[in-house]
Design brief:
By secondary structure, this protein is α/β, with parallel strands linked by helices. The chain has ten helices and seven strands. Helix 4 packs across helix 5 and helix 8 crosses helix 10. The relative contact order is 0.09.
């Protein structure tokens, strides 16, 4: 079978082509998506199959399938890393896709493609190749800590911010203390001095004296110590402070 391939990940297209050549298919890897259209439209004998990266398909700026159809070229085309499967597996999905695209093709026997479809499917879904192919990564399992009746942005923000948002709500923290806590959290696992913190205030156009800052820090640390559910502490070392989480 004559097969043309294109992918922005040229190395992936080359490896798939080598895999298919080992099964006696005649494969050509094309370097630019524009050249795919030009080459096929100018050839008398068309390839049997066009294998593309899903990222090369654009409905608006360059729709290769529409362009070919406009020239009455109905070429069986599949996207090897298609993330939007409408059938139970890639083979059935590709068969359905080709059936729609080759409605004017003289060859109606889709069994003709099954062997090469299975070969491509097994290859791109293999443990060895999947991690290197765009759009093929399996999503990570959603952590239990995010599973509630409804996932809210507050929940997500709180996990990103080490729990300081939830602490603010539990402790009814004032805006001034929460602002200070944000500075500590932003610099977590780093020792920061009174001078470093005052610079943060100054950068945000806020006025603060050393004495007032020390009072706020003392209030904040006392509030953290009293909160049994708090997943972080602020430790003092000499004249510096460090935000440390327990997660």
């Amino acid at each position: 079978m004559r097969v043309y391939l294109f992918s922005p990940q040229k190395g992936i297209a080359e490896i798939i082509a080598d895999h298919l050549r080992a099964e006696d298919h005649d494969c050509l890897v094309i370097n630019k998506i524009e050249d795919v259209f030009l080459r096929i439209s100018n050839e008398i004998k068309k390839p049997d199959l066009l294998v593309l990266d899903y990222l090369s398909y654009n409905h608006d700026t360059f729709n290769i399938i529409k362009n070919l159809n406009d020239y009455n070229v109905y070429l069986p085309t599949i996207f090897y890393n298609d993330p939007c499967l409408v059938r139970s597996n890639r083979i059935r999905h590709w068969r359905s896709q080709v059936q729609l695209l080759q409605c004017k093709d003289e060859r109606k026997d889709l069994d003709f493609f099954d062997k090469i479809f299975k070969s491509i499917q097994d290859f791109v879904e293999s443990e060895e190749m999947r991690p290197y192919i765009s759009l093929m990564q399996i999503p990570k399992k959603l952590p239990d800590r995010l599973l509630k009746q409804q996932i809210t942005m507050d929940t997500i923000k709180d996990n990103i911010s080490d729990g300081i948002l939830a602490f603010k709500k539990r402790s009814k923290l004032s805006n001034s203390l929460y602002y200070l806590l944000e500075i500590f959290q932003k610099n977590k696992n780093c020792l920061i001095s009174i001078g470093d913190i005052l610079k943060e205030y100054s950068r945000d156009g806020k006025q603060m004296t050393q004495d007032s800052l020390r009072v706020l820090i003392s209030k904040l640390r006392n509030g953290i110590r009293k909160d049994k559910a708090c997943p972080f502490i602020i430790v003092k070392e000499k004249d510096c402070y460090e935000f440390i989480t327990f997660k």
